Amino acid sequence: MQILMTEKAATPLLLLHPSRGLIDEKFSLMVQNLSQIQEITLHALIHSDDGDYWEAFGHYVSDATGLVNVANDSSLGGTYDGVKPMGLLWSMRPVPGSRIGLRLRKKEVHTPMLVHISVYRGHMSQGFKEQVALASVVTERWYMSPGVRRVDITEGGITGTLFLPPGPGPFPALLDLWGGGGGLVEYRSALLSSHGFVSLALEYMTPRTSGGSTSHVGNEYFEAAFTVLKQHPQVCGDRIAILGLSFGTSVALGMAVYSTVIQPRCLVCVSGSHVQPVKGSLSDVFSEINKNVHNTRYDEENRVIWRDLLLPIPTDPTKKVDVGQLKCPVLMIVGEDDQNWPATESAEDMKQMMEKAGNSHLLTTLSYPGAGHLIEPPYSPHIRASNFMVAGTRQKFVVLWGGETAPHGYAQEDSWKKTLSFLEEHLYRSTERWHHRSYSHDGEIIFLGLSFS
Amino acid sequence: MGCQPHHLLPLFGCFCLVFFSRCVSTMVGTSPLLSVQPTRGLVDEKIQVVVRNLPPAFSVTLHSLHHSEDKDLWEAFGQYTSDGQGTVTVAKDASLGGTYEGAEPMGLLWSMQPVPGSRTGLRLRKMDVLTPLVVHISVYSGHMTEGFSKQSPLATVVTERWYMAPGVCRIDIEEHGVRGTLFLPPGPGPFPGVLDMWGGGGGLVEYRSCLLASHGFVSMALEYLSHDKNRISDIDSKTYFEKAFRIVQEHPLVMKDRVALFGLSFGTSVALNLAAYSKDISPRCCVCISGSHVLPVNKSISEVFKKINEDRYKTRFDEEGCVVWRDIILPIPTDLGEKVDMGRIKCPLMLVVGEDDQNWATVESAKDMAQMMRAAGNEHLLTVLQYPDAGHLIEPPYTPHFRASNFIVQKTRQKVIMLWGGYTKPHADAQEDCWEKSLGFLRQHLYPSHDSVPKAKL
């Protein structure tokens, strides 16, 4: 009589779909072939371009069929809890022992972020490196969809990177402005282009040296950037928007109201303020902020809080953009725990100004409790504070951005979805009644109304 | 309702250019929004193609274009009318004509055919699995059937179709005379294994093994009919295949008692022969597509081919001069020396046949195999998938079907056009269903659930 030993422990199957996705796409993740009611930990790991390791993990228990499905099942603990299908991405943080003040940003947009997703036996909170996983898969997360083209821009005296969707076009376009950290940050533009917009990521924060003196760029720099877009053969010149974060919002609002060259179809303003000298330039904004530098505070970990530098919101109309003159729709996105800019107070003040002026129907404000300053495309990790260097000064700080991980993750996901909808609505769908004059042979003016109803 | 002065079109168009010189798509309003999701997918993953922002009840043609490794152009297209919201959703709207009809979510892929003017007898196969199949999907104004290259589309997206999931590892194998390519899934393992064998076309075809690895199986694509005429004499006996099986089985990442055989066409014959007669290896289960148990039992490959040659007089030709080989093994012999004794099969077996297979008498073979197993009492091991109007080459899904293609006869190096059979839509359905069931079958037998009952052998 011969008895065969119990069959070897079955290898669980980790099923992740899609294996290659855009950074803002959801994935489905299941583990099959576990034992019944088995404790496992799902773990995600990224090795960043900067050489750091970021991880997230959630504790799960399989059901009676040996299945865990993150779409339906609750994480019982880890870096996120509850039913959070994308928690393994947005709750990531640097692994223990990492350098401090890190921020996860993809510089090279032609390659994806590689995320290793593993399942471990038991409920673990550390020591993942020393343990052999039960199963592991790799997923690619891309900022650029296939066919998107990247072009360096140096014409018109500006420095930027243009991203073009595949296809003949013409397309609506975006001027994409980041904030005080400066540099040329491309990934949001790459992603916008993957959604059908031409997008120009503009470098503008680095002070320019010319004729022996160093100063910030003037307003004509932004007008030149807008013109580059407007004149591009694949851009619909009357369908250009501005997307700004932080300082980028200041530029967007200032230019939309006061520039005769820049006529955006709509604006998306994230974590910013209208408080700046009227018709001023970037240098003027900085000077104003510097006047209040004594309002800088520090938290218990000595991290810089700059939100008070623009407070209180002035009543003097020369000290803030006259948003009552805005003629295009504006989407304001603010995090209620923003420790860097007084975005909430500014949004409130803007609303009041626009109500008084009678153009508040143009304003939509999305306000997120528990979200911080850096409201970026979704599923990238939230960081409450990070190392920061003011562009051009080489001064280093650890800046408090604010926000708590779960509500910030939600804010990024929700605001991005609404941003894309807003842009699609105003740049793709809005069918304006265009009346234009055309001349008949005998000089009589004929008005032709065009609409698609 | 605004005025729609169609008769003023040329005049209007002219002024339109003067005043709104940038937006040439004015006649359809703003640009349509074409989305394909996912933009990067595995070859067997479905795509969602949606066009939005069209005028309502607007005629468009959705078009796909692929530039193959062999430098040929393949295309498919479907004609649609947008709904009241100006949307076309390929998954649920009916194509009114083109290379496919009706509501076909994946029609733009499986109905592809060489563009007019192409070389004849083409077959689309991806030989380099490290790069994706790149497909351009476009939406054109109006219902078109030709001239796509001369017209500017309204919008285009680019999608990648991959055989290789991220993290899959490709390894060249040349061990003890065995030649193949091994694919390893990502992760610590251990994994079940598959020995993957194609048919009489020969060479080393990697894509199915690569895709199997993307689904969690260590898989080796085996070369056993080299295009190099001199090498055929190397494959002299079962030993070659047993060695190949052991290479998979003995890999440190492979579960030794969970290695399967996967065969198509001649590969099926090899698999059945091994499963029934090998004393050395024991597959956990077998997937056998478009093949037969009819072959000289336990003989070398050369002898098998010799027998096929003797019967080659039974070759027929269709009205276009394509070679029809289906009668070569007919009638199914009754002599047990001429066909694998199916009563000796001890593992679960999935047989897949296309009812319009013009290359090999697979339907008759499957029927005979079932009878033999019924008589022997092991029919409970057998699953048969039989697909009406499907042809011989039942491959992973969403790749084009071709009823006939260029083929080089192994022994004589003769170039013919081989009739495989099948009709495009039913063949595509067969590929989709077969692949899903094959993966399910492999998972069931190779990745069992954790609380399997221990087996006692008395």
TrEMBL record, chain A:
SUPFAM superfamilies xrefs: alpha/beta-Hydrolases (SSF53474)
GO biological process, alphabetically ordered: acyl-CoA metabolic process; fatty acid metabolic process
A UniProt-annotated Pfam family: Bile_Hydr_Trans
Gene3D superfamilies: Acyl-CoA thioester hydrolase/BAAT N-terminal domain (2.60.40.2240), alpha/beta hydrolase (3.40.50.1820)
Active site: 246 (charge relay system), 338 (charge relay system), 373 (charge relay system)
Chain ranges of the Acyl-CoA thioester hydrolase/bile acid-CoA amino acid N-acetyltransferase domain: 24-155
Record domain BAAT/Acyl-CoA thioester hydrolase C-terminal: where: 220-428
Entry's family note: Belongs to the C/M/P thioester hydrolase family.
PANTHER family, per database record: ACYL-COA THIOESTERASE 17-RELATED, ACYL-COENZYME A THIOESTERASE-RELATED
Protein name: Acyl-CoA thioesterase 19
Lineage: Eukaryota, Metazoa, Chordata, Craniata, Vertebrata
UniProtKB/TrEMBL annotation, chain B:
UniProt xrefs under InterPro entries: AB_hydrolase_fold, Acyl-CoA_thioEstase_long-chain, BAAT_C, Thio_Ohase/aa_AcTrfase, Thio_Ohase/BAAT_N
Keyword entries, A-Z: Signal
Family affiliation: Belongs to the C/M/P thioester hydrolase family.
Highest taxon of source: Eukaryota
Location of the Acyl-CoA thioester hydrolase/bile acid-CoA amino acid N-acetyltransferase domain: 44-175
N-terminal signal peptide: 1-26
Swiss-Prot/TrEMBL GO biological process terms: acyl-CoA metabolic process; fatty acid metabolic process
SUPFAM superfamilies: alpha/beta-Hydrolases (SSF53474)
Active site: 265, 357, 392
Domain BAAT/Acyl-CoA thioester hydrolase C-terminal: 240-447
GO MF, one annotated term: fatty acyl-CoA hydrolase activity
One Pfam family per UniProt: Bile_Hydr_Trans
Ranges in a coiled coil: none
Protein name as annotated: Acyl-CoA thioesterase 16
